């Protein structure tokens, strides 16, 4: 009997998008008979434990990235964390070296964890951003980023070859093979089997910006019947109401999929995994880029003419989002 091939799948814990987009890949390899080891930290690891409770899990060093409260200080906040991030990359590389002393692997799939590659194992990195968008020195930063990517055997970009969703973000050059593997989403379009939801807000991403978006959205949504806000906090299983707005701590993939299929409009960040999910489900979305986050700002600009998406800046929520919602309600009534 042929021994099972073994893979390590390790998404970055920076929001939940890196973990959620690995779910279809994990499912595919399991269907092919592979044994899967999972490695991450924090909410990303907890999410995958809930999705795949029978798999083997390993804790990795946390990058522990935080955003600033204002867009003006975001760049300096991120730059100040570079030494910490580099130290975590070194730690996870040492973890992998120790792990491989006792565990055979046939494949490593790392989603933006730059230390998880090894000369003895085929090592793939999933990354949609080869061209790093920064306010200054973008070329230099992209070059340094490419050095990390070139340590792997392949780079898999979750987009089609026309770069329809990622745009210029995936337009960099590497010294390793680059494969466009198509968009990745854990969610599927299906018939609605619950009450219609006119507006569904799904929060995600690092603090404090996740909480700031929640605080901005609740006053706008609390007067609209059957509207739901999902806080995106993995271990929060609470449900409550603020006026007409139902607030849910978190949902698993199937329940979330059901709610999105029953929603008219989804309100979320312009994160790449959220965009892939909305496109997979052909669902209209209001995208709110994280203030001062260049990647999300670029994606919002890149997709501003996409038929599914409306772009609203976080500072515009009290005026533009409220006006859009009331205009939509009038059309539906």
List the helices and strands and how they pair.
Elements: E1 6-11, H1 17-31, E2 35-40, H2 42-51, E3 56-59, H3 74-80, H4 82-102, E4 107-111, E5 122-126, H5 138-149, E6 154-157, E7 178-180, E8 197-202, H6 209-221, E9 228-230, E10 239-242, E11 245-248, H7 253-261, E12 263-268, H8 272-280, E13 285-287, H9 294-302, E14 309-311, H10 317-332
Parallel strand pairs: 1-2, 1-4, 2-3, 4-5, 5-6, 6-7, 8-9, 8-12, 9-11, 12-13, 13-14
Antiparallel strand pairs: 10-11
Could you walk me through the main structural features you see in this protein, from its secondary elements to its overall organization?
With 333 residues, the chain is an alpha/beta fold. It is built from ten helices and 14 strands. Strands 3-2-1-4-5-6-7 form a seven-stranded parallel sheet, with helices on one face. A seven-stranded mixed sheet has the order 10-11-9-8-12-13-14. Strand 5 (122-126), helix 5 (138-149) and strand 6 (154-157) form a beta-alpha-beta unit. Helix 1 (17-31) packs parallel to helix 2.
DSSP, total strands: 14
Low-confidence stretches: none
- Give me the number of helical elements: 10
Helix content: 25-40%
Q: Secondary-structure element order, as H and E? A: EHEHEHHEEHEEEHEEEHEHEHEH
Gyration radius, in Å: 20 Å
Overall pLDDT score: 91
- Per CATH, the class of the largest domain reads Alpha Beta
Q: CATH homologous superfamily of the largest domain?
A: Glycogen Phosphorylase B
**Given the helix and strand composition, which structural class is it?**
alpha/beta
Fraction in beta strands: 15-25%
What's the assembly state of these chains?
Answer: single chain
Number of structurally distinct domains: 2
CATH topology of the largest domain: Rossmann fold
**Overall spatial form:** globular
């Amino acid at each position: 009997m042929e021994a099972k091939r073994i893979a390590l799948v390790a998404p970055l814990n920076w929001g939940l998008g890196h973990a959620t987009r690995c779910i279809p890949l994990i499912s595919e390899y399991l269907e092919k008979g592979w044994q899967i080891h999972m490695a991450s930290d924090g909410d990303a690891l907890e999410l995958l434990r809930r999705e795949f409770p029978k798999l083997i899990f390993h804790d990795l060093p946390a990058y522990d990235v935080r955003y600033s409260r204002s867009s003006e200080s975001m760049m300096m906040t991120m730059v100040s964390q570079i030494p910490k991030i580099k130290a975590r990359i070194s730690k996870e590389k040492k973890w992998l070296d120790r792990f491989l002393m006792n565990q055979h692997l046939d494949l490593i799939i790392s989603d933006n964890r730059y230390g998880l590659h090894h000369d003895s194992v085929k090592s793939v990195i999933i990354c949609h951003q080869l061209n790093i968008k920064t306010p200054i020195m973008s070329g230099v930063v992209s070059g340094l980023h490419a050095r990390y990517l070139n340590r792997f055997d392949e780079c898999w970009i979750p987009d089609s070859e026309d770069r329809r969703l990622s745009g210029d973000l995936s337009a960099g050059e590497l010294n390793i093979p680059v494969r466009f593997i198509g968009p990745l989403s854990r969610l599927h379009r299906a018939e609605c089997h619950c009450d219609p939801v006119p507006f569904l807000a799904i929060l995600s991403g690092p603090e404090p910006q996740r909480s700031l978006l929640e605080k901005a959205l609740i006053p706008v949504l609390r007067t609209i019947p059957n509207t739901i806000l999902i806080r995106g906090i993995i271990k929060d299983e609470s449900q409550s109401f603020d006026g007409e707005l139902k607030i849910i701590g978190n949902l698993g993939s199937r329940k979330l999929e059901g709610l999105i299929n029953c929603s008219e409009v989804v309100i979320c960040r312009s994160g790449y995994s959220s965009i892939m999910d909305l496109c997979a489900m052909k669902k209209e979305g209001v995208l709110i880029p994280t203030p001062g986050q260049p990647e999300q700002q670029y994606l919002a600009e890149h997709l501003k003419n996409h038929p599914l998406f409306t772009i609203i800046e976080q500072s515009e929520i009290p005026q533009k989002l409220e006006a859009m919602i009331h205009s939509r309600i009038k059309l539906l009534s």
